[in-house]
Write a structure and sequence with these properties.
Helix content: 40-55%
Shape: globular
Largest sheet: 8 strands, mixed
Subcellular location: Nucleus
Pfam families: FAR1, MULE, SWIM
Organism: Phoenix dactylifera
Number of helices: 24
Strand order of the largest sheet: 1-7-8-11-10-9-12-13
Oligomer: single chain
GO biological process, one term: regulation of DNA-templated transcription
Function: Putative transcription activator involved in regulating light control of development.
Distance between the termini: 46 Å
Structural class: alpha+beta
Length: 714
């Protein structure tokens, strides 16, 4: 229990440090001294394949040489520069390191003159004798007497490598997460640095692939799934030792769902809350029935910035290259940096539920002393309707419980623009209620398992759970189409909404509509574009301003609820009732919330956007056609009659493609001859150069095959 509490405190300290250091206008690596690894080459995403994770490089100005091996006499500008170099070197070889020794000059100033960086397996562990009657928990030592080290000494204004040993007496594993964390200031002491990255990754790999860490079962699963459905997408990332570090997959239904509901996405990494759970992460969202939908899954063993970049770019390729409008994640510095690079135009927000959950741990002693604090804090975050109301409630809580010196709460308030929904209301997040919460992967795991489980068993149960979700969606569709909701007013607006929205979304709209009847609405500005003040009572601090355009029959509200959730707020509805508007304009019914969210008159609404990118490679064209085929299959399977018609259409389309392919082949043959042979003008006029139909044709299929191979080689 003591160890668990200590680990939790360490995580909290790291988390607060991340939060305190974040700046929305600065990416990590800019204006600070941290060292962020960057990929040696641009990552590649393909439907099927294995990507090798290249060794990382030290960030350096353009024109700087590749990272070198350490040598005697090598010079650095400072001891920190030497440490950064050795950190990069240790990561590339795959071993954790620490500062073994340092020495200062004698005298008043005591200037640092020597620093020695050693492998974390340096030295021999010696058990300290304990007093009689005392029992101490045995600690596992990682020290194996390794001699590898680099020592630098100060020489005037430079630091020079004076001693060096590069040989290790142990196996070198994958990239060190400890070195990664230490370089960013997440691990400040040698005690914390005892957690070896290679050991941590080994544990994650064992959680995912079993005791032997064999990933062949996962590869077999991917092959089987793709054999059953060619639209199944997967990609695998390996390190320099050919060990699987990360893998991603998305089935046809997940890729199809993203076309309809991929505007707001949550990246779920809650597996970290369960020590038994494998490193299973998901991209998810909500459908038009407010049910959770999956857009892709991954096993994330390596959590460096490069790995996140690889995962996000791979997922984006699987989803057709269209990024989401908004993305909700846990707070993680490497993840945040990767999101800024891969999704520069996506609004990124930290999950409020995860932050509140961590607050229960970080403020446990305060909650114990003040039982009402937790409820007041959560109410402040969840129920405040304006920024002013939130900040006043927060300040009141801080003063009431004398928490001004609490670093955790101060850190959270400093980054309130990154996780409090009130500050992000101008962006769509598909949240119809402040209490809306998706089932997490950790919730799923605890629902079906209570200890470690094999990957095969986990994936089987996950497939069954997804099948159950699809059945729930079909049932919700049937309920929406076959039953009528109970109306609470005689308003034509409520009746109109009942015929357009799905049942659950209409219930949310109806709640807003009924609430609008209890507001006081006052016109504060006349004209074609008028303004109204909307409040529950005259003394309310939460007053909203609605701007109404009488010509276009449109309105906007300072609460920005429509922009955030996609349904009209009670304030605008109150104004519409006052101006006697009988029907809502079509633009106020967001298609993704309607009963026809998954219907469209054309095959691909984004065909214009994808046209240029789909011509770049076979992979892009393949993915684009798969998306079209999935849509046809969804429509074709709805009834026997439509199924038969769809089969006939597919057969005709396939016949046309074969015929076009033959014609294109003849054109390619002529092109190959014209390009590869020098033809005299006279011969060309007489047609003599084209009399041999076999000339140059035999090499063409081989050339095409080579081109296809290059498209799939990583």
């Amino acid at each position: 229990m003591e160890n668990t509490r200590a680990e939790g405190d360490d995580l909290m300290e790291d988390y607060v440090e991340c939060l305190m250091s974040l700046d929305t206008n600065t990416r990590p690596g800019e204006n600070d001294n941290t060292i962020l690894p960057v990929p040696a080459e641009e990552p590649t995403s393909i439907p099927v394949g294995i990507t090798e994770q290249p060794p990382t490089k030290k960030i350096a100005p353009v024109g700087t040489e590749e990272p070198k091996e350490p040598t005697l006499g090598m010079e650095f500008e400072s001891d920190e520069a030497a440490k950064a170099f050795y950190n990069d070197y240790a990561r590339r070889l795959g071993f954790p390191f620490r500062v073994g020794r340092s020495r200062r000059s004698k005298g008043v100033e005591e200037v640092l003159i020597m620093k020695r960086f050693v492998c974390s397996k340096e030295g021999i562990y010696r058990k300290k004798p304990s007093g009689e009657g005392t029992r101490k928990r045995e600690r596992i030592s990682m020290r194996e007497g390794c001699k590898a080290m680099m020592e630098v000494i100060r020489d005037s204004d430079r630091w020079v490598v004076s001693k060096l040993e590069t040989a290790h007496n142990h196996h070198l594993g994958t990239s060190s997460r400890v070195g990664y964390l230490r370089a960013r200031g997440f691990i400040d002491t040698c005690d914390k640095a005892r957690i070896v990255a290679s050991d941590a990754m080994t544990l994650l790999r064992q959680n995912a692939f079993g005791e032997r860490g064999d990933a062949q079962g996962l590869v077999d699963y991917f092959k089987r799934m793709q054999a059953e459905n060619p639209a199944f997408f997967y990609a695998i990332q390996v390190d320099s030792n050919s060990c699987v570090t990360n893998s991603f997959w998305a089935d046809a239904k997940a890729r199809s769902a993203y076309n309809y509901f991929g505007d707001a996405v949550t990246f779920d990494t809650t597996y970290k809350k369960n020590k038994y759970m494998m490193p299973f992460v998901t991209f998810s969202g909500v459908n038009h029935h407010l049910q959770p939908v999956i857009f892709g899954c991954a096993l994330l063993i390596d959590e460096t910035e490069y790995s996140f970049i690889w995962l996000f770019e791979t997922w984006l390729a699987a989803m057709g290259g269209r990024p989401p409008v908004s993305l909700v994640t846990d707070q993680n510095r490497a993840m945040t940096a990767a999101i800024a690079k891969v999704f520069p135009n996506t609004r990124h927000r930290f999950c409020k539920w995860l932050i509140l959950s961590r607050s229960k741990q970080k403020l446990a002693h305060v909650y114990s002393a003040h039982p009402t604090l937790r409820g007041e804090l959560e109410k402040c975050v969840i129920e405040s309707e304006t920024v002013q109301a939130f900040e006043m409630a927060w300040a009141s809580i801080i003063d009431k419980y004398d928490l001004r010196k609490n670093t955790w709460l101060q850190a959270l308030f400093n980054i309130r623009h990154r996780w409090i929904p009130l500050y992000l209301k101008d962006t769509f997040f598909a949240e119809l209620s402040p209490t809306q919460k998706l089932e997490t992967t950790n919730d799923f795991y605890k629902k079906y398992f209570n200890t470690k489980t094999a990957l095969k068993v986990f994936l089987t149960q996950f497939e069954l759970a997804m099948a159950s979700r699809y059945e729930d969606e079909a049932q919700a569709d049937a309920d929406t189409m076959c039953t009528k909701p109970v109306l609470k007013t005689a308003s034509p607006i409520e009746k109109q909404a009942a015929t357009i929205y799905t049942r659950v979304v209409f219930n949310k709209f109806q709640q807003e509509f009924v609430e609008s009847l209890g507001y006081n609405v006052y016109k504060i500005k006349d004209g074609t574009v008028s303004k109204f003040s909307v409040a529950r009572d005259e003394d309310s601090l939460e007053t909203f301003i609605v701007t109404y355009n009488s010509t276009k029959k449109t309105a906007t509200c300072t609460c920005r609820n429509f922009e955030f959730s996609g349904i009209l707020c009670q304030h605008i509805l109150g104004v519409f009732l006052m101006v006697d508007l009988h029907m809502l304009p079509e633009e106020y019914f967001l298609k993704r919330w309607t009963r026809h969210a998954k219907s469209c008159a054309i095959l691909d609404e984004h065909s214009v956007e994808l046209q240029s990118s789909s011509q770049e490679s076979i992979t892009s064209r393949y993915n684009d056609l798969c998306r079209d085929a999935i849509k046809c299959a969804e429509k074709g399977a709805t009834s026997i009659e439509i199924y038969k018609a769809a089969k006939d259409v597919f057969q005709k389309a396939f016949t046309d493609i074969i015929a076009f392919e033959k014609n294109a082949g003849r054109g390619a043959q002529r092109d190959a001859i014209n390009i590869n042979e020098e033809i005299a003008i006279d011969d060309a006029m007489n047609g003599q150069a084209l009399q041999d139909p076999e000339r140059k044709w035999n090499c063409l299929p081989e050339e095409i095959q080579d081109c296809n191979l290059q498209e799939h080689v990583i």
